[in-house]
What we know:
Structural class of chain A: mainly alpha
Radius of gyration of chain A: 22 Å
Low-confidence stretches of chain A: none
Mean pLDDT of chain B: 80
Order of helices and strands of chain B: HHH
Oligomer: heterodimer
Mean pLDDT of chain A: 83
Helix content of chain B: over 70%
Number of strands of chain A: 2
Shape of chain A: globular
Structural class of chain B: mainly alpha
Shape of chain B: flat
Radius of gyration of chain B: 16 Å
Number of domains of chain A: 2
Strand content of chain A: under 5%
Largest interface: A-B, 62 and 53 residues
Number of helices of chain A: 12
Distance between the termini of chain B: 52 Å
Strand order of the largest sheet of chain A: 1-2
Amino acid sequence: MIEIAIDLIIAMGVVGLALQTILGASVFRAILMFIVFGLLMAMAWARLHAPDLALAEAAIGAGITGALLLVTWRRLQAMDGRTPRVGIAARAPWLSIASGIFAAALIVALGWVSLSLPAEPAAAGELAWQRLPEVGVSNPVTGVLLAFRAYDTLMEMGVLLAAWLGARAVASELRPGALPGPAHAEVPLVGALLSLVVPISLLVAVYLLQAGGSAPGGAFQGGAVLAAGGVLLCLSGRLEAAERSSITERIGLVLGLAVFSCIGLVMLFMGEPMLAMPGVWAIYLVETALLLSIALTLVLLFAAAPGLRRAP
Amino acid sequence: MMAWLLPLVALVLLLNLTLGMLRVYQGPTAADRMLAALLFGSTTVAVLLVFGEWMAVPALRDVALLFVMLAAIISVAFVGLPEADEEETP
């Protein structure tokens, strides 16, 4: 009885907040509704016994998207109603129509194919669960992500890199202004907060990575937490945008993809299936590289900058 | 005895959240809405801890700790907002 009431409140709350986020007239209120929506989603994942997803929701929702949307609102206000410089979309409307039709056709085709496939009764899941002990990690989510579905995970890193490259391409067209100057740079409390939260975010990121082997956690959650520390440094003006990305940043952006592919290819040349993991050490090595790349990409996306440097 | 107590606590906390939604919805100022949203963060931590104990999913404590650690980021992002024009931006 009480359980049903709890689940009902969460379910109705999620739908109601989603509607408020989309339909709300005030941008600021919609942003706050979205932040609260993230909190409720974490509770929903918790009720669904999916603590991995609740962790990801907490790290990304509370650490990055909330701050990102508030800062975007700030930039919109700084623009004071001026419309941004219109880019390619207005110059070639046929291009957006054509790509829209192409995207719709792709979705229809994919949906058609997946509907016409014969339904296999969870054969892969059962098999993966039975053979999980051979992987060497006891958390099934990490096992599936890095051993059974490694190709998907590799592609996800590719998507993240593509997202950053896409953001860079659009930024050269739209030229978003620098982050509005922090009004609280000189407040001593901010320094105290930074010296507390930033080291802890590093600690928690490493903890989540290590815990990912046997408990909920992993590279994606850890990377988002580390990125949250970077977001805080950007917000308080300790890090600022640089005109170009440094070599270290470029290496960091592709590190996850590179290490993952290298191990995968080496295994291919040794006669194993591509992306097979030679051992638990390789899983942790790949996860560490993924964590660093994810964190750096998210911070650079947040700052909308090609690179970052310490503020003078 | 504990079997019904923990879900009841979670339910009361959730009802608390629903009432707090009124403050986010009505405002009247941006700061009111922001404070209500931050209060939601604290309540979410409490709900997750109760869920973790009730459903025997200890990993939910990690989620709760993560929310505690990251709660400050949104307030730092908010405090830097310009004070004027806080209402009904189109």
